[in-house]
């Protein structure tokens, strides 16, 4: 199993450009999450999904959109990137059952100039 | 608002020491309290977790102490090793939403 994978690993954007971050998991998990990590602030939840076709807002959703068209994929979109969105983005997933452990991907480092 | 306050921000101990990291939370609607460990360039990974119906949990050299009335929980690392040098995050899980809210992190350095 690959677990949780994220693409791309690194990206540099100019202000106003758009991009999509892809998260994929092969563990058949129902729940998926997008977090951003900034120095001194821990991880903050952007959006999450409790199942295919459903999404919900987290703590810091402004400027981001998400889609969960397939159970194994969770996409994070930035329609018009801003320097404040420079961050490391992590995707995570977990199952409804068991010990609720969230499994994290390796992260995407995004710089917006 | 900050629902989880973690301290200290950084910690340096000698090999064999017992670093202690503390977290305090503000809401009672949490049902799961994990600690995550993160190495540079990697995603966080679950280290140990506790539910509010127990006061202590041990897994190897790692122990969580939980004080429900004080709304505090802490991570103790026994016989710390240089390989434990990492950033540690506490988190709380919202009962309804099932999403995690993380503390701001503690950078631990264990010197040989």
Keywords:
heterodimer; A: about 110 residues; seven-stranded mixed sheet; four-stranded antiparallel sheet; 11 strands; globular; B: about 110 residues; mainly beta; about 0% helix
Protein described:
The complex is a heterodimer of chains A (113) and B (112). The radius of gyration of chain A is 13 Å and the shape is globular. In chain A, a hairpin with a 5-residue loop joins strand 4 and strand 5. Chain A starts with a strand and ends with a strand. Chain A has 113 residues and is mostly beta strands. Chain A has strands spanning 4-7, 10-13, 19-25, 31-37, 43-51, 54-57, 65-67, 73-78, 87-94, 103-104, 108-112. In chain A, strands 2, 4, 5, 6, 9, 10 and 11 form a seven-stranded mixed sheet that branches. Chain A has a four-stranded antiparallel sheet with strand order 1-3-8-7, with no helix packed on it. With 112 residues, chain B is mainly β. Chain B has strands at residues 4-7, 10-14, 20-25, 30-38, 45-50, 56-59, 62-67, 72-77, 86-94, 100-102, 106-111. In chain B, strands 2, 4, 5, 9, 10 and 11 form a six-stranded mixed sheet that branches. In chain B, a hairpin with a 4-residue loop joins strand 7 and strand 8 (72-77). Chain B starts with a strand and ends with a strand. The mean pLDDT of chain B is 93. Chain A binds chain B through residues 4, 31, 33, 35, 40-45, 48, 50, 56, 58-59, 90, 92, 99-102, 104-107, and chain B through 4, 6, 9, 32, 34, 41-46, 49, 89, 93, 97-105.
Write the layout of secondary structure elements.
The complex is a heterodimer of chains A (113) and B (112).
Chain A: E1 4-7, E2 10-13, E3 19-25, E4 31-37, E5 43-51, E6 54-57, E7 65-67, E8 73-78, E9 87-94, E10 103-104, E11 108-112
Parallel strand pairs in A: 2-11
Antiparallel strand pairs in A: 1-3, 3-8, 4-5, 4-9, 5-6, 7-8, 9-10, 9-11
Chain B: E1 4-7, E2 10-14, E3 20-25, E4 30-38, E5 45-50, E6 56-59, E7 62-67, E8 72-77, E9 86-94, E10 100-102, E11 106-111
Parallel strand pairs in B: 2-11
Antiparallel strand pairs in B: 1-3, 3-8, 4-5, 4-9, 6-7, 7-8, 9-10, 9-11
């Amino acid at each position: 199993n690959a677990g949780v994978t994220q693409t791309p690993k690194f990206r540099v954007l100019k202000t106003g450009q758009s991009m999509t971050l892809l998260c994929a998991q092969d563990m058949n998990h129902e729940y998926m999450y997008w977090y951003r990590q900034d120095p001194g602030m821990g991880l903050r939840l952007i959006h999450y999904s409790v199942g295919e076709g459903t999404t919900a807002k987290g703590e810091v959703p402004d400027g981001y959109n998400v889609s969960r068209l397939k159970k194994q994929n969770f996409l994070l979109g930035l329609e018009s990137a801003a320097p404040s969105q420079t961050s490391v983005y992590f995707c995570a997933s977990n199952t409804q059952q068991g010990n609720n452990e969230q499994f994290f991907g390796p992260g995407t480092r995004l710089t917006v100039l | 608002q900050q629902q989880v306050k973690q301290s200290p921000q950084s910690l340096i101990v000698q090999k064999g020491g017992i670093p202690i990291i503390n977290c305090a939370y503000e809401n009672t609607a949490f049902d799961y309290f994990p600690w995550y460990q993160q190495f540079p360039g990697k995603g966080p990974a679950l280290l140990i977790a506790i539910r509010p119906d127990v006061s202590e949990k041990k897994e190897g050299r790692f122990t969580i102490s939980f004080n429900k009335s004080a709304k505090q929980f802490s991570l103790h690392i026994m016989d710390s090793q240089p390989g434990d040098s990492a950033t540690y995050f506490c988190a709380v899980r919202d009962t309804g939403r099932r999403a995690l809210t993380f503390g701001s992190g503690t950078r631990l350095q264990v010197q040989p």
